[in-house]
Amino acid sequence: MTGTPAPGAPEPDRPHDLVGIGIGPFNLSLAALAHGLPGEGAGGLAATFYEQRPAFHWHPGLLIDGTTLQVPFLADLVSLADPTSAWSFLNYLKARDRLFPFYFAEKFHIQRAEYDAYCRWVSARLPGLHFGHQVDAVRWNPERALFEVDFTQLDAGGGAESLGRAYARHIAVGIGTEPHVPEPLRPLVDAPGVPVLHSADYLEHREQLLEAGHITVIGSGQSGAEVFLDLLRARPAGAEGIHWLARTEAFAPMEYSKLGLEHFTPDYTRYFHALPETVRDGLVPQQWQLHKGIDAETISAIHDELYRRSLHGGWPDTVLTPGVQVRTAGRVATTQVELHLEHLHQGTRSRLTTDAVVLATGYRERPLDRLLVSLDPYMRRDSSHRARIDEQFRLVLDPAVTGSVYVQNAERHTHGVGAPDLGLAAWRSATILNSLTGKEPYPLPRRTAFTSFGLERREAPGIPGQTPLLTPLEERR
Q1: d(CA 436, CA 171)
Q2: Are 193 and 333 in contact (CB under 8 A)?
Q3: What is the dihedral of CA 193, 194, 198, 203, to 10 degrees?
Q4: Half-sphere exposure (CA, 13 Å, Cβ side) for 232?
Q5: Would you state the torsion angle of the CA atoms of residues 357, 363, 364, 367, taken in this order, to the nearest 10 degrees?
Q6: In the chain, how many H helices and how many E strands?
Q7: What is the pLDDT of residue 5?
Q8: What is the mean pLDDT of residues 348-369?
Q9: Which residue has the higher pLDDT, 382 or 1?
């Protein structure tokens, strides 16, 4: 599937203002906000986006019936930067004649399946999106002062159909994350026989899992909780046969207080970016409950379901154990898996034999190095050899590279826990476009939080002359 060319888009041998690599929610947000902006040539901003998948899909393996986003519907692709955009969630509802049903539903948090449908609606109508295009390499051409983007157009079966090249003044990399499988379990995931799979593939294998005599779910975050609850509801009372294991000290609720949520504001992102590297590295793991906990509604639903199953005496056949890590794992014949467990506080060890394993073990940023290997000589890195990323989401490159490479959801080490959060998508896209155009097509708010995270409030980029909201203590005395 290939989108129609954007108005004013250049010929293949003429440069685009922007080439986006990957079409997940973040680059889709960027494409939506870029649509209609003025460009350097005739017509609008010449932007094109490439994605190797044949169509847009957002976590299809976890669109479990009834599950909702953990952010309000206003965290769509555009609204927090431009609520008048034609690509807003509310306009999607209007186009589908669903505004009144949504109004009466009084739901601030929409179902995941509805968010996926909304994004697919945008991706099917937005110009300049090219699915079935795999980007193979990105190079800087100093003679033309442009980026060269080599890609392979894929056929319906994913095979190579033709090769192509695009030229761009700027690049936006939004290749997303990939499922993380802990080291002890990696050999089991690819082996045939007993199902050992990441929760990203849960729905594809759900029926097979339900046929298993015993199932183990590993991981204490929202995905692990949703998988556990879905399996629990589908299994007969008294014969549930489910273990739920986690490394964390508890099946803990996500921090969802209103002031706690201010960690997902531009104010906190700017504050975090200005901290020393060692301080940032220490903060991120401490803040796990901001993004790795379980929402209170899901925790309540799990407890209610377990309680319901105990009404007539006895306990459901479930074991929920936090504070446990998998040391090693192996197959028992070809029909079962044996997990070697260690309790982190007790120091005790045990074995668990199970018929299926679902790994709700999260995601990791896809490394940029493979895609941007040709830019490596130009890239500036921190003490841990990670890419340095400036406040406007640009890779810090040698000054000889006059174009910019922007990144989306690859900057947690520089911008904090909000990097993968949908609520910051539109603001980050607007920041990128303001930087790219050198103008301010999207005026951004000067202040977004009641909390002042430091003793000195820094000036927001693109807002010259902003007055600090809190002066250093020495100046106040």
Answers
A1: 10
A2: no
A3: 90
A4: 24
A5: 100
A6: 13, 17
A7: 43
A8: 95
A9: 382
